[in-house]
Amino acid sequence: MITADGQCTSAVVARLGEARASFTKLEAIWKHSALSKSRKLEVYKACIVSKLLFGLEIHFLRKHERDRLDAFHARCLRKILRIPHPMISHVSNKLVLQAAGEQPLSTQLTMKQVIFFCKIAVLPDDSLLRQTVFQPSSFDLKMFAGKRRKGRPRVSWVTAVSAHALLVAGGNSQHMQDIFRNPTALHLWKQAVKLHFSQSM
């Protein structure tokens, strides 16, 4: 569900509603005393997080939409770990994430987007998807011609994700392109993404 101006707020709201309903249906698991917290977290990631983030990497989410994902994630983890609301427990969401060994959903989504960026880069030149992002036979971003409207330019998926990809490559665009040219580009890139985001935790 995408609006006429290219925003996907309605899609994010719908996904959060479905994820919330699924989480409620699994209430018996979250309250089960015989299941360990690690097992509950595995069920949560497999049944809730994977469904919520599936295919979402193709969208550009604004800050308030990413914040909604993170807030939902923190509430679910508090329920699983039995940590009361911060007003009562005085435990911040950051500490909740550390206790669960989890990253914010916005970070997990960014990782998926940066990996998807590599998948587009290694596609053949005749791929329509690659043609919308990169220039032919190059890893330079495609420049769209036309008159720019007045005002602050809107951040696009391509500009935001390419900026994150450059950070993964240590700020060196040539290093990033060298990885993309490697026959095992996707494997190397996934390792670089995991290393970069694990260090930023």
Descriptive overview:
- The protein has 201 residues and is an all-alpha fold.
- The protein folds into 2 domains: 9-102, no CATH class; 109-199, no CATH class.
- The protein is 63% helix and 0% strand.
- It is built from 11 helices and no strands.
- The protein has helices spanning 9-25, 27-31, 37-53, 63-81, 86-89, 93-100, 105-121, 128-131, 157-168, 173-181, 185-199.
- It starts with 8 loop residues before the first helix and ends with a helix.
Question: What's the quick description here?
Answer:
With 201 residues, the protein is mainly α.
Helix and strand topology:
Blueprint: H1 9-25, H2 27-31, H3 37-53, H4 63-81, H5 86-89, H6 93-100, H7 105-121, H8 128-131, H9 157-168, H10 173-181, H11 185-199
Question: What brief labels describe this structure?
Answer:
201 residues, mainly alpha, 2 domains
Class per helix and strand makeup: mainly alpha
Strand % is: under 5%
Q: Give the rounded overall mean pLDDT.
A: 90
Query: How many beta-strand elements?
Result: 0
- Overall spatial form: elongated
Helix fraction bin: 55-70%
Calculate the terminal CA-CA distance, rounded to whole Å.
Answer: 32 Å
Give the biggest beta sheet.
Answer: none
Q: From the alpha-carbon coordinates, what is the Rg to the nearest angstrom?
A: 19 Å
Low-pLDDT runs: none
Please indicate the count of domains.
2
Q: Count the helices. How many?
A: 11
SSE string, helices as H and strands as E: HHHHHHHHHHH
